[in-house]
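Reviewer 2 asked us to include a model.

Predict the structure of this chain.
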Amino acid sequence: MIQSIDYAAVAPSLILALTAGLVLLLDAFLPRTRALPATVTFAAVLASLVAVALQAAAGRTLSTFCVPPDRRHAAPACSYVVDHLTLIFAAVVLTAALVIVLLSATQLTLPGAIPVGEWYFLLLCTLAGAVTLPASRDLITLVVALELVSLPAFALAALKRYDAKGSEAALKLFLVSVVSTAVMLFGVSLLYGLTGSVHLVRIAERLTGPQAATGEGPAVPVGVLAVAVVLVIAGFAFKVAAVPFHFWAADVYRGAPLPVAALLSVISKAAGFAGLILLLTTALAGQSAFWTPVVAVLSAVTMTTGNLLALRQRDPVRLLAWSSVAQSGYILAPLGVQTQNAAGAATAYLAIYAAMNLGAFAVVMLVPPPGLDDRRDLDHYRGLASRGPAAALSLAFFLACLAGLPPGLAGLFAKIVVFREIVDGGGAWLAVVMAVNTVIGLYYYLAWMARLFIPTPTTPPPGHPATPPAGAAAVPSSEAAGGAVTSAVTGTSGAAITAGRLAGARPAAIAVAITLALTIAFSVAPQLILSAVG
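Predicted model (structure tokens):
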């Protein structure tokens, strides 16, 4: 059987994959060019986003790699389907990718030997997998796409040579991912063995269709099916850093370069949730009475653990890591109740979370640590409002959104959507847990916000001199997106900021501008995303 390929359906993934090869060729023949790979990568992500927009404008479902009907199935089954869910996840991933590329341009100007060509090649491979995964409609494509998201991330985390923290982060990420993949593959193999199919729609038919109802064919053992569902959920729980599979998050986020931490917190997480939603709502929709309580408990434990551990953090990156774990709990919450729009509520929260979380990472990238040892502390942000008012106000807005406080209405709307879905689904206890966790989260977000407007202390944090040494420089103001964001970053104490940090300030400022514009848009007009997922 020869299958035809609909290139219009696979265009976004194909653009990214072909550009990944092009970047390697450019690096091989033009090794001294640093700006060209970044420009080509940014253009490819933008072109892929345009392709997604054209697919959405067409207003029809696209499918390819299909097998024809047979005597048991009246309809064809396709491995790659571009529908409403696919377009939303692809748009979130690619918009986040634009920000990651800008943060990467800043990272590559900092001290440390990072090969430019390999960096953008691995980044494009991850993006190709993240765009392919929401369109995957069979178990094989789903697993391959998920691994294409994960495997390059190991190398990206360790790509900064002679960096012990980066190597440690990559090793932890690798070990956790290997275990999660093994667990998930065990569950996937059980699903295939029980149903005799890898296509999600035919798995659902076998489990809940006429054959299951009439007893035609061998019966599906309920106990084995339950084990398969639990293993699949556990495998994806590793990917989204849900408790009790969360222990890698803080160390990996802190040890990896900041753009990689941002990628893991948004793009990798979005891919994991896309796969989980597809399996639960497509292949296992008929078993929702079994898996919704499991997901509800997972959600409650995840948001509680993430918030409690975030309370103790002094490093802003580790704080964002545990905050990301807590946010995973909020995204899981709608899937823990049986409602018609549970997947839509989870997707809406994910899209809004992506904008505000990337914005916080972008400001952290824009505001350098006081020395060249890359040690960050929340107290280093004291008085930022006087040294860099635009950066301070932007960060305060992102933190308010993450907390769900005005004027961060985007985060408030996201929490209301999830809360309403939980209540409508009869999950009163889960709604109470979410409300309590929202209050807990206020503390560490507000504590960081307050430091932005507190005058710089006369006594410096331990280990840093009271006055900057001779030659210490301040990052000059940089204007991005037509003056939307102007960042004056604090003067440093300790070693002088390198010229590379000065050169990299502008891409990070543009990244702040993009995320700020998106977050304000979601705050002013939340229907932009709510109507899309509704």
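The beta strands are 62-67, 77-82, 478-480, 485-487. The first strand starts at residue 62 and ends at 67. We have added this to the supplementary material.
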